[in-house]
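Appendix C reproduces, verbatim, an entry submitted by the partner laboratory led by Prof. M.T., so that reviewers can inspect both the input and the predicted structure.
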Amino acid sequence: MGETGKGVSQGIGIGIGIVIALTGLPVLGFLMCGGAFVGISEMGRRAEDTFRKEDDARPKPSMPAGTDIAPSPKPPRSNDIPAPVEREPPPAKPKPVDVWEQAGAVASLDDVTVKLIETSLRKPGMIRPGGDRAEPSSELTVVRVRITNRSATRKINFKTWGTGFFDIGSGTNGFLRDEHGNVYPRISPSSLCRWEGQADHQSIAPGESHEDLLVFDPPIPAAREMRLELPGENVDLKGEIRLKWAVAEQTRPPRSPMLVEPKPPFELEGPRRPSIVERVVPKPTVPDLPPREKQAQSKLRVAKTFLRTGDTEKAKAELDALVKQFGETEAAKEAAELLKK
């Protein structure tokens, strides 16, 4: 109560001092205001002491005996920085699988086996619609394969991997590349013709085999390995059949001496003088055959070609047709003898 009264009296004193200062008694007003300010300062000091005593009297949390306050960690010096932990390098990426690494002369897809039986560089025969045989002007890569159906219950509707007249752009033909990635175009015979030994579309019963022939451009000199990719669609399967062989293994059949035309070492001007042999020995004349005999001889050559390539079924069909159509000719008599063998 005393403190309150003293504060009130001091406030009254301040007010009286202000009034006196305004009314012209400056000295007295100054003295009274100074006394008021001293009283206010004393009140503030006493209030601060009171708050300190109350804070000291308030109970503080106790700590267990022997507990020391851990000093705040000091920042590490440059010499105290631990060495970086060496991490293991990331695992290496797996090497891409080379699908040609395991390829060879024989490949299987499900219950179908395909085997290389010829890889040669030669001039393949071309059968024309009339049955005549022709050859290309240069040597080509000739590939012959044997397809075997190992299934016990499934029949294969085989479609040739070569190019037939109605197969242009079908996308189910074979593709040939070398180890450098060069693509070798598939060579197709002229219109309405087929390669000698090329298969037709036919069925392959369980346990039976069939052969097919493909013709491509010859390899470049730098090629060492040829890679043949055959679509599985041609044997009613999904996937690819891959075969490969070394270029050095490609064979060249020996040339027949009858097909080699000798060239003179030099050319003579003017008409050539006949040799002594030509003057003494008369040149044999080839008799002109009748038209039917010519046709029969042409069919006989086709049948013999099928026999050389191992296609006995087509050879027998050609010989039978020859005997029936041209029975009176010499070619038909020879065909009949071939049928007896």
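The mean pLDDT is 74. Additional entries are available on request from the coordinating office.
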